[in-house]
Design brief:
The structure holds 2 protein chains of 2 kinds. Chain A is built from 16 helices and 2 strands. Chain A is an all-alpha fold. Classes of the chains: A mainly alpha, B alpha/beta.
Chain lengths: 339, 505
């Protein structure tokens, strides 16, 4: 329990004195503290990378590569953050990415060219999100179960479509997006998409009624319902949003790899959840930040990059990731309890 | 005084949490076989004190003596070993386990150290339940299936399954009907006859008069009076000690003229099978209609059904003459209904959010264009609404969880004030609100009515309904047994009606 001292009530017309409330500054301070600590971790990682592999790590090409790799999982994580803030979970994101990427790269789809691929990836993602959302919002299914079922079926369908084969993309325009010629001021287009999705996600969560309702549903669904919010419709929209993000991510992955595979997006669900959690999003819902999630993604991607440059195997990476998740949650709990 | 040392003696106990000194040198002395009542407003330190006593909190300084010997309670287990059991307000039972499994949780009778002897556990549980006057509770039933009152009995059985010398009861009567309260008091009397001491916490002075031996009053983390005789200390003195001023229930004055105009809320034959019988009522603008009845008489269910949170099996609700779509909260809110539910934290508040966001959550579209929130307008509206109700602290940016119960309730009221609602449904509006803050809340409710709101009030505290409402419906087992203007009823009469159902004489 904390006691708050109300600000001194100034003279009659003096409302300006109350406009910068001390408690709000305190709250912002806590959020800033979390962002700062994540930035600190990122800075330490960059330092480690710069010291262990001074020539390779800080090379412009390598940094472009890190950001490009972060883009695909980053877009997924933005959608996942919304779902978790609302008190839900989406275990199907990796499978949806896989299904969308193979559906968008079949021979038939590729005949429609660039637009056909982009359109298909997005529609498949949104379609899967729609199924998730309807099952959860109107079928009263637990998000864990509904999205687990989607996880299994979408992966199965992806395998069926490809028959396990890699579908090479031959459409020129798509592949060009991944080329250096397409970079804008040295920034790969994929990273630009990631940046736009991040900005849109931040605005949606912090500045719109949609974001406010998402937080309310996650913080206390019963209170939200009794306050007159359409909780079910909100839940439906949230899984649609997550599906949309998966569709966009699938398109980015197609550009990045020049192909569609049924093994795409493997373990994305865990990476996205982990990034959101270390970014400060409560798994129980009601609180979360887009900035934190994106920093979480960047931290994980940077670790992977540093380990690869130092020729360390992926098993060591996995162990390090696990340790970071535990450390981040412990640190956050400490900062939360002292404020 | 008694030659042998008191069972429990706490002296100079202090306990600080970041930013607040919860206990500031508390002394408490409990004799074996007495009922020692702890009184104090919310935030006076009662909860912290009993957590220290239960071993859940470690005091910063102070001395704790048990039968004359210094002890340290390092953990709840240590307290339990001494014979101190605590029954918390929020019951700490495992819903999916059976009654017997809950009672013996952590000390199951076993064979060879680990095989649980289920039959023995059930038999000893049955014996305990019988001793508590509830032989009808089946030890094999899952606790989650039991009503709240019986869950409390199970909690008590768990306390008694240990060799207990001192039982701490934190507002045990809060969720109980008068009949069940009688049973509770009988149990307490049995326990003290066996030499067990009871530390009893309650807001209800009349209960303390009935069963208490001595009273310790806490205020701002200090014991302002210790060991007062419970039966003879005048109420005014106790209230003065608790609040530092002489107030009891203070109700605002009713307007001189009876409210006129067409009823804004009309309920026609509304019913839910198994919960309440077809009900008719009308509330006019400016009028406060009270529903009086016991727990389980269907009061909360009626409010929630009017509000659309439950779907009626028959009947209609009309607001301003227009029927509402049944079973739709959104339709009710759009038509101008607002609910302040009984479980404020669970059903109304977004505990992680600021006061502002709690107040504006039902009117977001008013500050938004195309879904885009104008945060300046939002803050301004929240500030205006909370000022209107003199919510403290006068800063809607603070987290709602830091507010006192009374101010949290004001935040809920501000939500509906801002929404511009026409009918306010209040379910136990002063639950968890301390005595001093109640009068202010009553005044706010009356003022809202004077400004033209229709108010439907439900409360288990009869004086509250009689003091605040203009007109009262008395409910018994889901039926209206009496209707009268509030000034024509008294507490005794209402209690007769709800318990006996005798018609007006």
């Amino acid at each position: 329990m904390t006691q708050h001292v109300s600000p001194p009530r100034g003279g009659t017309g003096n409302t300006a004195a109350v406009d910068g409330p001390p408690a709000r500054r305190g709250l912002m301070g806590r959020a800033d503290l979390r962002t700062l600590s994540l930035l600190g971790v990122l800075a330490v990682l960059v330092l480690i990378g710069g010291i262990t592999r001074p020539d390779e790590f800080l090379d412009t090409r390598n940094l472009q590569l890190v950001l490009t790799q972060a883009s695909v999982i980053g877009v997924v994580t933005v959608g996942m953050t919304f779902v978790i803030v609302s008190g839900g979970i989406d275990l199907s994101v990796g499978a949806i990415v896989a299904l969308a990427s193979v559906w968008a790269t079949t021979v038939a789809t590729q005949e429609y060219g660039f637009g056909g691929i982009l359109f298909t990836a997005v529609v498949v993602g949104v379609g899967c999100g729609l199924v998730n959302g309807v099952l959860i919002a109107y079928g009263a299914m637990v998000p864990f179960i509904a999205t687990l079922a989607m996880f299994a079926s979408a992966r199965g369908l992806a395998l069926q479509i490809t028959d396990g084969k890699t579908q090479i993309v031959t459409v020129e325009g798509v592949l060009d997006l991944g080329e250096r010629d397409a970079y804008v001021l040295g920034i790969p287009p994929l990273v630009l998409v990631f940046a736009v999705v991040t900005l849109a996600g931040w605005l949606l969560l912090n500045r719109t009624t949609f974001g406010r309702r998402t937080v309310a549903v996650g913080g206390n669904a019963e209170a939200a319902r009794l306050a007159g919010i359409d909780v079910r419709r909100q839940r439906l929209y949230l899984y649609l949003l997550s599906g949309l993000c998966c569709g966009i991510a699938a398109f980015l992955l197609i550009v990045l790899s020049g192909s569609g595979q049924n093994t795409n997006g493997n373990l994305y669900e865990l990476d996205a959840i982990a990034a959101a959690i270390i970014g400060g999003t409560l798994l129980s819902g009601g609180r979360g930040t887009i900035v934190g999630s994106v920093l979480g993604v960047l931290i994980f991607t940077t670790i992977t990059n540093i380990f690869a440059l130092n020729n360390l195997q992926s098993d060591v990476q996995q162990i390090a990731k696990g340790a970071i998740i535990v450390a981040a949650v412990l640190v956050q709990r400490r900062t939360a309890s002292t404020t | 005084m008694a030659p042998e040392p008191p069972l429990l003696s706490m002296s100079g106990i202090t306990k600080s949490f970041p930013g607040v000194r919860a206990l500031d040198g508390v002394d408490l002395e409990v004799q074996a076989g007495e009922v020692h009542c702890l009184l104090g407003q919310n935030g006076a330190g009662k909860s912290t004190l009993i957590k220290v006593l239960a071993g859940a909190h470690q005091p910063d300084t102070g001395r704790l003596r048990w039968r004359g010997e210094d002890v340290t309670l390092r953990s709840p287990v240590a307290a339990m070993r001494l014979g101190i059991a605590t029954i918390y307000q929020e019951l700490d039972l495992v819903e999916h386990l059976s009654v017997a499994e809950n009672v013996h949780l952590g000390h199951e009778p076993t064979t060879a150290g680990f095989v649980v002897r289920g039959k023995a556990a059930r038999a000893s549980t049955a014996a305990l339940l019988k001793r508590l006057g509830h032989p009808e509770i089946d030890p094999a039933r899952p606790v989650g299936d039991l009503p709240a009152a019986q869950q409390q009995i199970v909690s008590m059985a768990r306390a008694l399954s240990h060799d207990v010398r001192l039982i701490v009861m934190d507002e045990p009567s809060a969720a109980l009907d008068p009949e069940e309260v009688d049973n509770l008091f009988r149990i307490v009397a049995d326990l003290t006859a066996d030499g067990v001491a009871v530390v009893y916490i309650s807001h209800r002075l009349e209960e303390i008069r009935r069963i208490g031996d001595r009273v310790t009053v806490l205020k701002d983390g200090r014991a302002v009076a210790g060991g007062l005789p419970a039966k003879t200390t005048p109420t005014s003195e106790v209230v003065a000690l608790m609040t530092g001023r002489n107030v009891e229930y203070v109700f605002p004055r009713r307007p001189a003229a009876a409210p006129g105009g067409d009823p804004v809320l009309q309920v026609r034959g509304l019913a839910r099978e198994g919960e309440f019988a077809p009900l008719d009522l009308e509330v006019r603008p400016g009028e406060i209609l009270g529903l009086a009845g016991l727990v389980g008489s269907g009061r909360s269910e009626i409010l929630e059904t009017i509000y659309g949170a439950r779907r009626p099996t028959a009947g209609r609700v009309l607001v301003g003459g227009r029927p509402l779509r049944p079973g739709s909260v959104r339709a009710a809110v759009r038509a101008g209904l607002g609910l302040a539910p009984e479980e404020r934290k669970a059903q109304a508040l977004l505990m992680l959010e600021s006061v502002t966001r709690n107040v504006t959550v039902s009117s977001l579209s008013r500050f938004a264009r195309g879904g885009w929130i104008d945060r300046g307008a939002e803050r301004g509206a929240a500030r205006a609404a909370t000022r209107e109700l003199s919510l403290r602290p006068d800063n809607p940016a603070v987290p709602v969880r830091t507010l006192s119960g009374g101010n949290q309730q004001k935040a809920v009221l501000a939500r509906w004030l801002l929404r511009g609602c026409r009918v306010l449904l209040l379910d136990e509006p002063t639950r968890g609100v301390d005595v001093g803050a109640r009068a202010e809340l009553y005044a706010v409710i009356r003022r809202l009515a004077d400004e033209g709101l229709a108010v439907l009030l439900v409360s288990s505290e009869v004086p509250e309904v009689l003091g605040l409402a203009d007109r009262v419906l008395v409910l018994r087992e889901g039926r209206v047994v009496h209707e009268a203007p509030a000034p024509e009823l008294d507490e005794h009469r209402v209690l007769d009606l709800v318990m006996e159902g005798t018609p007006a004489s």
